Amino acid sequence: MSIRFRSTNRRSPSVTFRQAVMEGQAPDWGLYVPETIPVLSPGIVASFRNRPYDQVAAEVMLPFVADDISPEDLAAVCADAYSFEVPIEQVGDGFYLLYLDRGPTASFKDFAARASSPVATASPLRCWLPHRGTPAARSPTRSTGWRVFPSWCCFQLRR
């Protein structure tokens, strides 16, 4: 079962990943955040060693979206989104640096932006908000994130 999401203002009921994507922002004007954050066991973390970034990303994301996106679809989304090298450099004893400037625009935002639209539109999430007649994707913070979404706002209408 997937993790549920609650509003940062705590005045709206918790929702599923799909509902959070469809609503964009909670009715109480809060942002949706996970109710819980899964703890990765040392064994799971050790299994990430020498694996490509896209595989690690899919495994870490799966608990948040498991009810709405199959592991296979999520793996495909991550493989496509993270099709560039993500180097890790050891900078000290037990300290590592993950380079988040290796995406297409050399910005850390590439990591969220390249996966957010495909994850949000992964089947069965492709739909429009029927009661508003507007695309499902909206940036709840009205920040620069809205610039990511126009490229994936036109999908097939599903009811």
Topology of this structure?
Blueprint (H helix, E strand, L loop, with lengths): L4 E3 L9 H7 L8 E3 L7 H6 L5 H13 L5 H11 L6 E5 L2 E4 L10 H13 L6 E2 L4 E2 L24
Antiparallel strand pairs: 1-2, 3-4, 5-6
Give the rounded overall mean pLDDT: 77
Class by SSE composition: alpha+beta
Ranges where pLDDT stays below 50 over 5 or more residues in a row are 127-159
Q: Write down the domain tally.
A: 1
Shape: globular
Number of helical segments with 4 or more residues: 5
Number of strands: 6
- CATH homolog superfamily: Threonine synthase, N-terminal domain
Could you please describe the fold and organization of this structure?
Helix 3 (53-65) crosses helix 4. Mean pLDDT is 77; it is low at 127-159. Strand 5 (128-129) and strand 6 form a beta hairpin. The strands form three sheets. A two-stranded antiparallel sheet has the order 1-2. A two-stranded antiparallel sheet has the order 3-4. The protein has a two-stranded antiparallel ribbon with strand order 5-6. The chain has a single domain, classed as Alpha-Beta Complex (threonine synthase, domain 1, chain A). The chain has five helices and six strands. By secondary structure, it is α+β, with helices and mostly antiparallel strands. The radius of gyration is 17 Å and the shape is globular.
